[in-house]
Design brief:
Distance between the termini: 37 Å
Strand order of the largest sheet: 6-12-11-10-9-7-8
Order of helices and strands: EEEEEHHHEHEHHEHEHEHEEHHEEHEEEH
Number of helices: 13
Largest sheet: 7 strands, mixed
Length: 406
């Protein structure tokens, strides 16, 4: 696929543009977004409250516009997905339904290198249920001497120790290493052990091809401001497998948007449930944030995940080859798995004995290469295929060699 770089606003550097490798933290702004937001602002100015039903994209049903493209993005059926809230809010709402500890099965299994927000969320959920988080949160670490957690080790743990696990919650792509776990195999192992399996897709949505429905995942959540380029703090997504959608025994927190929209304005005191992921909604959606997500999903539909993933593999392989040359003879190494099927669009480089904060600052200011520092010693480079180029990869490797030699 050709790059869509021209459709994004690239930060400037000297007389040109940066090479942007931080899309795994915050994606770039699409040029079309300003006009799209302007349309919603114009409807607000022209129609005020009537924009809920009379706008060019009526706000009352706006979230329904995102249902099918979001489903295509994560490999789900339309009624299994909803765009709402932020990532950790969605994790909590879904754990209200799917973390059901018992005295014999109280544990939550996560990866030891889970993003801190996930760690905080599961610890607070355990405490909410009266458990000591230090006793019921299981953190799986890589093998001694290895940097990434193998999917087969997760499967083996669940086969051997899974009888006390109530919930498996793993990052499909690890934020630190860029490792892609085997969603289907781990989900099957979790179910065989009697556990519910949920996935944090923060670094997977828009990065790798996903098949949540076919993988039989119970639930998942993701954000939209990384590879999806929907803006800082923008709305997140949630998936609930269709086998759970009509289960009235599931506990849920409810709000006005949880009820059937056909009866919402009857102002009844009790919820009329709907058999879709919409029933996990609480409030009417923030339209300006949702407009950015809709535009992003349209761009992903236009290009297609298969084409993006194919280009991502080529970009990442080229960057890997360049970085191997940089690391050779220097005190640095790539932590990310070598096999293309075990990673997304990210390579993490460990620089031994150096504080990477000043190094990434120099990459940006001296060379126009924007990367991400994970102190003390890891630099993350994400060649996002929507806007990164092979020349960007060359610039990044050349710049890294220069700052490591100084």
């Amino acid at each position: 696929m050709p790059t869509r770089r021209a459709e994004f606003l690239i930060p400037p550097h000297d007389d040109g543009e940066v090479a942007y490798f931080a899309g795994n933290s915050l994606g770039l702004q699409p040029r079309a977004l300003r006009a799209r937001l302007g349309e919603e602002l114009d409807d607000w100015a022209r129609l005020a409250v009537e924009g809920h039903l009379e706008g060019r994209r009526p706000w009352y049903s706006y979230h329904e516009l995102l249902r099918e493209p979001a489903a295509r993005l994560v490999g789900a059926r339309p009624r299994e997905v909803v765009v709402m809230n932020s990532l950790t809010v969605n994790l909590h709402l879904l754990m209200v339904s799917f973390y059901r500890p018992t005295p014999r099965r109280p544990a939550i299994l996560i990866e030891d290198s889970a993003f801190p927000s996930d760690s905080y969320a599961v610890r607070s959920q355990a405490a909410l249920h009266g458990h000591d988080p230090d006793k019921v949160i299981i953190r799986l670490a890589p093998r001694l001497g290895e940097a990434t957690l193998r999917s087969e080790d997760v499967v083996a743990y669940l086969a051997e120790e899974g009888d006390r696990v109530a919930l498996v919650l793993l990052g499909a792509v690890n934020y630190y290493s860029g490792e892609l776990l085997d969603i289907e195999a781990i989900t099957a192992a979790g179910h065989a052990a009697g556990a519910v399996v949920g996935w944090d897709l923060a670094h997977a949505a828009g990065n790798v091809e996903l098949r949540l429905h076919d993988a039989n995942a119970d639930w998942a959540a993701w954000c939209s401001y990384k590879y999806l380029n929907a803006g800082p703090g923008s709305l997140a997504g949630a998936f609930v497998h269709e086998r759970h959608l009509a289960d009235r025994s599931l506990p849920k927190l409810a709000g006005w948007w949880s009820t059937d929209p056909a009866t919402r304005f009857q102002m009844a005191p009790t919820v009329t449930p709907v058999d879709s992921a919409d029933s996990w909604q609480l409030s009417n959606p923030p339209i300006l944030s949702m407009a950015a997500v809709l535009l992003s999903l349209e761009m992903f539909d236009q290009t297609g995940l298969a084409a993006l993933r194919a280009k991502s593999r080529r970009l990442t392989a080229y960057l890997e080859a360049l970085l191997d040359g940089v690391c050779a003879g220097r005190d640095a190494e790539i932590l990310t798995p070598r096999a293309p099927e075990r990673r997304g669009a990210q390579l993490s480089v460990r620089v031994r004995g150096r504080d990477v904060g000043p190094l990434t600052a120099r990459l940006r200011h001296e060379h126009g290469v924007v990367a991400d520092a994970r102190r003390p010693d890891v630099i993350r480079l994400a060649p996002a295929p929507m806007y990164c180029t092979f020349h960007d990869c060359w610039r990044a490797a050349t710049a890294l060699a220069a700052v490591l030699d100084d």
